[in-house]
Amino acid sequence: MTEEMGFSGSGEWSADEWTKEWTIHVGKAYHCLKCGTMAMVTKGGVGVMEPKCCGKNMIPVERPDDIR
Ligand SMILES: [Zn+2]
Fold first, then answer.
1. Residue 39 C-alpha to ligand 1 middle, in angstroms?
2. pLDDT tens by residue, 12-31
3. In the chain, how many domains are there?
4. How far apart are the C-alpha atoms of 13 and 65, rounded to whole Å?
5. CA 59 to ligand 1 centroid distance, Å
6. What's this model's pTM, rounded to 2 decimal places?
């Protein structure tokens, strides 16, 4: 799967911008649409967070409190 991120050809990203873009924030949650499992980030870091469950990518949850 390829997704255009919208920054092609418009200059270089600074290290700061990259760091901001890739920083994983504590408290960010992911949820599986199939079985309802939730995963929450409990330790921050820099990298790509792509949790999987039931063979599919888990969906980022902006407001974990809304999930019932
Ligand atoms: Zn699942």
1. 10
2. 888 888 888 878 888 788 99
3. 1
4. 34
5. 10
6. 0.57
